[in-house]
Amino acid sequence: MRPLELPQPPAWMTGALCAQTDPEEFYPEKGGSTAAAKRICQACDVRVVCLAYALDRGERHGIWGGVSERDRRAMTAEQRRNHPNSRPNTRAGQPADPLVDAEIMRLTHAGHSARAIATELGITHRRVQRARARNRPAQEVAA
Ligand code: SF4
């Protein structure tokens, strides 16, 4: 019998500063302070992709990218208000997230393949392709 294969964490998590600190700071009790975790996030090199990852997956708990669950809910609600017709693109039913798209396009312009980007961000290859299609420059579309 083959051993159970667990999903690999996305590559960016190797740069997570929180992995070197007390994880409890990032999951405070209700009403507890989030200040210490947010301070750590401000110094973290992977903050943008971390937040994009959490928004894309609809993470409900903890501090991700320096943003609390309450603030992420507000960001998602604002996104829905501003783009009411955007199609959900994840299992969590979140609308397309501009932060995730921006990170996908940044990595695309840096020459990374769609598969490498998917692995790096912990998202599907198809999600990368959709973001690329959404963000294709107008002249490329017309050509
Ligand atoms: S931004 Fe914050 S939560 Fe995200 S990996 Fe860095 S330290 Fe951890």
UniProtKB/TrEMBL annotation:
Biased composition (Basic and acidic residues): 68-81
GO cellular component: cytoplasm
Binding site for [4Fe-4S] cluster: 18, 41, 44, 50
Cofactor(s) demanded: [4Fe-4S] cluster
Processing and modification events after translation: The Fe-S cluster can be nitrosylated by nitric oxide (NO). Upon Fe-S cluster removal intramolecular disulfide bonds are formed.
Signal sequence range: none
GO biological processes: cell redox homeostasis; negative regulation of DNA-templated transcription
Start and end residues of each stretch annotated as Disordered: 68-97
One Pfam family here: Whib
Entry annotated with the keyword Transcription regulation: yes
GO MF: 4 iron, 4 sulfur cluster binding; dinitrosyl-iron complex binding; DNA binding; metal ion binding; protein-disulfide reductase [NAD(P)H] activity
Subcellular location: Cytoplasm
Keywords for the protein's UniProt record, in alphabetical order: 4Fe-4S, Cytoplasm, Disulfide bond, DNA-binding, Iron, Iron-sulfur, Metal-binding, Transcription, Transcription regulation
Domain 4Fe-4S Wbl-type: 17-74
Chief site of localization: cytoplasm
Function: Acts as a transcriptional regulator. Probably redox-responsive. The apo- but not holo-form probably binds DNA.
Sequence similarity: Belongs to the WhiB family.
Protein name: Transcriptional regulator WhiB
Organism: Amycolatopsis antarctica
Highest classification ranks of the organism: Bacteria, Bacillati, Actinomycetota, Actinomycetes, Pseudonocardiales
